[in-house]
Amino acid sequence: MNEKPETHTKYLIDPEALDALLDRLKGEGFTLIGPRLRDDTIVYDEISCLDDLPKGWTDEHEAGTYRLRKRTDGAYFGYNLGPQSWKQFLHPPKLRLWRAERKDKGFEVIEDDPETIKYAFIGVRPCELAALSIQDRVFMGDQHTESHYANKRRSTFVFAVNCSQAGKTCFCASMGTGPSARSGYDLCLTEIIKSGTHRFVVDAGSDKGRQMLEGLTGDAADDELLTYCVEQSRRAEQSMIRHLDHEKLGDAILRNPEHPRWTQVADRCLCCANCTLVCPTCFCTTVEDTTDLTGDHAERWRQWDSCFNLEFSHISGGSVRTTGKSRYRQWLTHKLATWRLQFGTSGCVGCGRCITWCPVGIDLTEEAAALGSPSTHESVP
Ligand code: SF4
Ligand code: SF4
What we know:
Blueprint lengths: L9 E4 L1 H13 L3 E8 L2 E6 L10 E6 L2 E6 L16 H4 L3 E10 L2 E6 L7 E6 L1 H15 L6 H8 L2 E5 L10 H4 L11 E8 L2 E8 L2 H7 L5 E2 L2 H16 L7 H10 L4 H9 L5 H5 L6 E7 L5 E8 L9 E2 L2 E2 L4 H20 L9 H4 L7 H8 L10
The site of one iron/sulfur cluster (SF4) has 13 residues, from α12.
């Protein structure tokens, strides 16, 4: 910046300065992960500069539907969310925990050290900041810290971006998680394409973020521009068509384990587990041990699991949740009700991924609303 950034000053930078910022992060040893086009979707993958971003593309969402479309304004962040979340980097789908080698006097167990990679996440949406904070609580918030997650998370640089539009499956406003970022980032961008100019307002949310801005070319954003940012965010919020009254409905779900809606949704649900895999907060895993054919080498792997899998609740004597109804009920009840008792927040941040990527278009906002409506099966509290 031309002047030393102050805590609450927001700066105006152009795309070249943003590229310089990405270069600076690389120079500090960060591996940049950001949005890019792949397989007709926008995924999170390694990037090296602004040119790698899905410039001029947007995504369209509906229950069970996702499409990419070209846009005419050349926006870098003109999409909402792809199928992947940031959890794949901090809580990977598959992770070897240890290996064991046969030695003369038995097996020697060698634990795998946590990875030391330094990530910079570029383009983290406000609902995803909320999801990161939920996963922080799960993996690092109690006396038991998950070292693989914690190691990477503590060195992660979070570069957020405010949403200038809402997808049709988004409902972050009703969950209080978006469409503007409030905390949980090192730097936060608002992309502004207006009067033939393409610029970004950048805001530092931490000392690490402030240090990154030092010496960069840019001016303090004026009041008119800041008002424009607020209005852009308000327009995104007002365009959201889905809503969830999660506190009221979470309580209603707890009182309604035998509501007829559970059977109706189970008739549609394929128990494919897509909703849990795309969800940025779902964290369940299973552990598998393998050996090679010689029997001299064994490994223990952890991998993502889902409460929609029959084996997930397998204990001595079989699975506890043998029907689709019981598995869907488990998922939604945990997400919206018992998660609050366990972690103090809802387990849902309103990103809408489970709606978009459900192959039969099951919409949790619709299901929760139906479950919250009076039922003859409602138990007496
Ligand atoms: S709700 Fe949809 S995505 Fe989730 S398990 Fe059922 S069919 Fe699959
Ligand atoms: S439950 Fe669905 S809408 Fe909520 S955070 Fe998970 S994927 Fe997003």
